Amino acid sequence: MHHGELNIVPHGLSKGYPEYIDFNVLPSRIIKFEKDLIEIINGNISSYYWDIASSIYKEVGYNKAKAPMMLMNRFEVFQPGYYGFNGLYTIVNTLIDLFVNSNNLTKDQTYPLDPMDFIYEEGRNNSITLEDAKEILNDSIEFGVYMHSKEIDD
């Protein structure tokens, strides 16, 4: 806890990572990306995360790509950043409602991934470069886990 308060929090705040996040408004922010996400699903926009995931499935095959160790290795690449696990939970559930529960995302569109795997592995932010987004994501993981990974209310 001391390390968090003395190092993680000050570092994150100095980088501008949010100390408080209103997770109730996060779904509306995600919904704003619906058109871009549909373009990715339809293959009209390139996606760094989709490219990584699909190349892994093609390289090792469907069954190996879904093996627990392979999933854990990919999880290290796809972290929640400064949103922490509360944010990841909110983002994934918003995407599930938007695409899976509404049947807007099919296995044919996400092959070789299942729609749920596609949602977990996809990400996009139009306001900054991909390299900047990856740097912020990696730099803010510890901050997000510390600040925004308390118990999730149902």
Automatic annotation (TrEMBL):
Subcellular location: Cytoplasm; Nucleus
Primary role: May be involved in a process influencing telomere capping.
Residue stretches making up the Restriction of telomere capping protein 4 C-terminal domain: 40-150
Family to which this protein belongs: Belongs to the RTC4 family.
The protein, known as: Restriction of telomere capping protein 4
Top-level taxon: Eukaryota
Keyword field: Cytoplasm, Nucleus
Organism: Rhizophagus irregularis (strain DAOM 197198w) (Glomus intraradices)
Gene Ontology CC: cytoplasm; nucleus
